[in-house]
Amino acid sequence: MVKKELLEKTMHNFVSAQVMTLSHLKILLSCSQRSVQRYLSKWGCLRSYNHNGKYFSLPSIAHFNLFGIWKYNNIGFSQFGNLKETVVKLVTLSPAGLTASELSEILSVNAHSFISQFRVDPRLKREKWEGVLVYFCSKHDVCIAQKGERFTNQPQAIFPSDTQAVIILVFLLKDSKATIEELSKSINKEHKSISIAMIERLLEYHGLLKKKIHTSCK
Length: 218
Fold this sequence. Notes:
The protein is an alpha+beta fold. It contains 10 helices and 8 strands.
Protein backbone atom coordinates (compact mmCIF):
# COMPACT_ATOMS: atom_id res chain seq x y z
CA MET A 1 0.00 0.00 0.00
CA VAL A 2 1.44 3.36 -1.04
CA LYS A 3 1.36 6.04 1.64
CA LYS A 4 -1.12 8.88 1.27
CA GLU A 5 1.62 11.52 1.18
CA LEU A 6 3.42 9.71 -1.63
CA LEU A 7 0.21 9.34 -3.61
CA GLU A 8 -0.54 13.06 -3.26
CA LYS A 9 2.99 13.97 -4.35
CA THR A 10 2.77 11.63 -7.34
CA MET A 11 -0.59 13.06 -8.35
CA HIS A 12 0.82 16.60 -8.10
CA ASN A 13 3.75 15.63 -10.34
CA PHE A 14 1.40 13.86 -12.74
CA VAL A 15 -0.79 16.95 -13.14
CA SER A 16 2.29 19.15 -13.58
CA ALA A 17 3.88 16.88 -16.21
CA GLN A 18 0.50 16.13 -17.92
CA VAL A 19 1.79 12.84 -19.34
CA MET A 20 3.90 10.11 -17.76
CA THR A 21 5.18 6.64 -18.54
CA LEU A 22 4.57 3.58 -16.43
CA SER A 23 8.24 3.38 -15.50
CA HIS A 24 8.25 6.99 -14.32
CA LEU A 25 5.19 6.39 -12.15
CA LYS A 26 6.76 3.24 -10.78
CA ILE A 27 9.71 5.30 -9.52
CA LEU A 28 7.50 8.03 -8.04
CA LEU A 29 5.24 5.56 -6.24
CA SER A 30 8.07 3.22 -5.22
CA CYS A 31 5.96 0.16 -5.93
CA SER A 32 5.68 -2.74 -8.36
CA GLN A 33 4.55 -2.40 -11.96
CA ARG A 34 1.36 -4.31 -11.14
CA SER A 35 0.54 -1.85 -8.38
CA VAL A 36 1.11 1.08 -10.76
CA GLN A 37 -1.26 -0.52 -13.25
CA ARG A 38 -3.91 -0.84 -10.53
CA TYR A 39 -3.58 2.87 -9.73
CA LEU A 40 -3.78 3.77 -13.42
CA SER A 41 -7.02 1.80 -13.62
CA LYS A 42 -8.35 3.35 -10.42
CA TRP A 43 -7.63 6.85 -11.69
CA GLY A 44 -9.25 6.07 -15.04
CA CYS A 45 -6.08 7.10 -16.88
CA LEU A 46 -5.93 7.57 -20.61
CA ARG A 47 -3.38 5.64 -22.63
CA SER A 48 -1.80 7.09 -25.76
CA TYR A 49 -2.95 5.62 -29.07
CA ASN A 50 0.50 6.20 -30.59
CA HIS A 51 4.06 5.63 -29.30
CA ASN A 52 3.05 2.00 -28.60
CA GLY A 53 0.71 3.15 -25.83
CA LYS A 54 3.61 4.01 -23.50
CA TYR A 55 2.21 7.32 -22.25
CA PHE A 56 -0.58 7.93 -19.74
CA SER A 57 -2.56 10.98 -18.73
CA LEU A 58 -5.41 11.87 -16.38
CA PRO A 59 -8.96 12.44 -17.67
CA SER A 60 -9.07 15.80 -15.89
CA ILE A 61 -6.08 17.01 -17.92
CA ALA A 62 -7.25 16.09 -21.41
CA HIS A 63 -8.98 18.68 -23.59
CA PHE A 64 -10.60 16.67 -26.38
CA ASN A 65 -11.37 18.31 -29.71
CA LEU A 66 -14.51 17.74 -31.79
CA PHE A 67 -13.12 14.38 -32.92
CA GLY A 68 -12.56 13.21 -29.35
CA ILE A 69 -8.79 13.58 -29.72
CA TRP A 70 -6.35 15.35 -27.42
CA LYS A 71 -2.71 15.84 -28.40
CA TYR A 72 0.09 16.74 -26.02
CA ASN A 73 3.10 17.61 -28.15
CA ASN A 74 3.21 14.59 -30.50
CA ILE A 75 1.44 12.24 -28.08
CA GLY A 76 -2.17 11.42 -28.94
CA PHE A 77 -5.00 10.40 -26.62
CA SER A 78 -8.54 9.42 -27.54
CA GLN A 79 -11.73 9.37 -25.54
CA PHE A 80 -12.62 6.20 -27.46
CA GLY A 81 -9.65 4.16 -26.21
CA ASN A 82 -6.88 2.54 -28.24
CA LEU A 83 -6.06 3.18 -31.88
CA LYS A 84 -8.25 0.44 -33.31
CA GLU A 85 -11.34 1.44 -31.35
CA THR A 86 -10.69 5.09 -32.17
CA VAL A 87 -10.52 4.47 -35.92
CA VAL A 88 -13.76 2.46 -35.86
CA LYS A 89 -15.52 5.16 -33.84
CA LEU A 90 -14.24 8.01 -36.02
CA VAL A 91 -15.38 6.26 -39.20
CA THR A 92 -18.76 5.37 -37.68
CA LEU A 93 -19.41 8.92 -36.49
CA SER A 94 -18.18 10.57 -39.69
CA PRO A 95 -21.03 11.94 -41.86
CA ALA A 96 -19.27 10.80 -45.04
CA GLY A 97 -16.88 8.04 -43.99
CA LEU A 98 -13.11 8.59 -43.94
CA THR A 99 -10.09 7.89 -46.13
CA ALA A 100 -6.68 6.94 -44.74
CA SER A 101 -5.43 10.45 -45.50
CA GLU A 102 -8.32 12.00 -43.59
CA LEU A 103 -7.67 9.71 -40.63
CA SER A 104 -3.99 10.67 -40.74
CA GLU A 105 -4.92 14.34 -40.48
CA ILE A 106 -7.27 13.76 -37.55
CA LEU A 107 -4.91 11.49 -35.61
CA SER A 108 -1.57 13.05 -36.64
CA VAL A 109 -0.24 9.57 -37.43
CA ASN A 110 0.35 7.85 -40.77
CA ALA A 111 -2.86 5.86 -41.13
CA HIS A 112 -1.49 4.10 -44.22
CA SER A 113 0.82 2.15 -41.89
CA PHE A 114 -2.06 0.38 -40.14
CA ILE A 115 -5.22 0.88 -42.20
CA SER A 116 -4.90 -2.52 -43.94
CA GLN A 117 -5.92 -4.32 -40.73
CA PHE A 118 -9.42 -2.86 -41.09
CA ARG A 119 -9.94 -4.74 -44.35
CA VAL A 120 -11.43 -7.60 -42.34
CA ASP A 121 -12.95 -5.66 -39.43
CA PRO A 122 -16.69 -6.49 -39.52
CA ARG A 123 -17.57 -3.06 -38.12
CA LEU A 124 -16.29 -1.30 -41.23
CA LYS A 125 -16.54 -1.66 -44.99
CA ARG A 126 -14.58 0.08 -47.71
CA GLU A 127 -15.21 1.18 -51.24
CA LYS A 128 -12.89 2.65 -53.83
CA TRP A 129 -13.78 6.02 -55.29
CA GLU A 130 -11.59 7.62 -57.94
CA GLY A 131 -8.65 5.46 -56.90
CA VAL A 132 -8.98 6.11 -53.15
CA LEU A 133 -10.38 3.73 -50.55
CA VAL A 134 -13.09 5.24 -48.38
CA TYR A 135 -14.02 3.53 -45.11
CA PHE A 136 -17.66 3.45 -44.02
CA CYS A 137 -19.63 2.02 -41.12
CA SER A 138 -20.79 -1.52 -41.95
CA LYS A 139 -24.31 -0.87 -40.61
CA HIS A 140 -26.48 -0.66 -43.69
CA ASP A 141 -28.46 2.50 -42.89
CA VAL A 142 -25.41 4.41 -41.67
CA CYS A 143 -23.36 3.29 -44.68
CA ILE A 144 -26.02 4.43 -47.15
CA ALA A 145 -26.22 7.84 -45.48
CA GLN A 146 -22.43 8.21 -45.46
CA LYS A 147 -22.12 7.29 -49.13
CA GLY A 148 -24.86 9.72 -50.01
CA GLU A 149 -23.08 12.51 -48.18
CA ARG A 150 -19.72 11.77 -49.78
CA PHE A 151 -20.78 11.03 -53.33
CA THR A 152 -24.01 12.96 -54.04
CA ASN A 153 -22.38 16.34 -54.55
CA GLN A 154 -19.24 15.04 -56.22
CA PRO A 155 -18.74 16.23 -59.82
CA GLN A 156 -19.40 13.34 -62.18
CA ALA A 157 -16.43 12.11 -64.16
CA ILE A 158 -16.43 12.84 -67.88
CA PHE A 159 -17.60 9.84 -69.89
CA PRO A 160 -14.85 8.75 -72.31
CA SER A 161 -15.31 9.39 -76.00
CA ASP A 162 -15.95 6.46 -78.34
CA THR A 163 -12.27 6.35 -79.26
CA GLN A 164 -11.17 6.48 -75.62
CA ALA A 165 -13.71 3.79 -74.70
CA VAL A 166 -12.29 1.47 -77.37
CA ILE A 167 -8.76 2.07 -76.06
CA ILE A 168 -9.83 1.28 -72.49
CA LEU A 169 -11.62 -1.92 -73.52
CA VAL A 170 -8.67 -3.05 -75.67
CA PHE A 171 -6.30 -2.67 -72.72
CA LEU A 172 -8.81 -4.46 -70.49
CA LEU A 173 -8.96 -7.39 -72.93
CA LYS A 174 -5.15 -7.59 -72.91
CA ASP A 175 -5.12 -7.98 -69.13
CA SER A 176 -8.55 -8.78 -67.74
CA LYS A 177 -7.15 -9.42 -64.25
CA ALA A 178 -5.53 -5.97 -63.90
CA THR A 179 -6.80 -3.69 -61.14
CA ILE A 180 -8.14 -0.27 -62.06
CA GLU A 181 -4.85 1.31 -60.96
CA GLU A 182 -2.83 -1.11 -63.08
CA LEU A 183 -5.11 -0.57 -66.04
CA SER A 184 -4.84 3.21 -65.71
CA LYS A 185 -1.05 3.03 -65.44
CA SER A 186 -0.78 0.93 -68.61
CA ILE A 187 -3.14 3.16 -70.58
CA ASN A 188 -1.42 6.36 -69.46
CA LYS A 189 1.88 5.26 -70.91
CA GLU A 190 0.37 5.91 -74.33
CA HIS A 191 -2.80 7.93 -73.68
CA LYS A 192 -2.37 10.64 -71.05
CA SER A 193 -5.82 12.12 -71.69
CA ILE A 194 -7.63 9.08 -70.26
CA SER A 195 -8.10 9.54 -66.50
CA ILE A 196 -8.78 6.83 -63.94
CA ALA A 197 -12.21 8.42 -63.39
CA MET A 198 -13.03 7.88 -67.06
CA ILE A 199 -12.00 4.24 -66.79
CA GLU A 200 -14.16 3.72 -63.71
CA ARG A 201 -17.15 5.42 -65.37
CA LEU A 202 -16.89 3.22 -68.46
CA LEU A 203 -16.54 0.05 -66.40
CA GLU A 204 -19.49 1.10 -64.27
CA TYR A 205 -21.58 1.65 -67.41
CA HIS A 206 -20.78 -1.89 -68.59
CA GLY A 207 -21.36 -3.43 -65.16
CA LEU A 208 -17.67 -4.24 -64.67
CA LEU A 209 -16.79 -1.72 -61.95
CA LYS A 210 -17.83 -3.84 -58.97
CA LYS A 211 -15.66 -6.73 -60.16
CA LYS A 212 -12.64 -4.47 -60.70
CA ILE A 213 -13.04 -2.79 -57.28
CA HIS A 214 -13.29 -6.18 -55.61
CA THR A 215 -10.10 -7.29 -57.36
CA SER A 216 -8.20 -4.15 -56.41
CA CYS A 217 -9.23 -4.41 -52.74
CA LYS A 218 -7.67 -7.80 -52.11
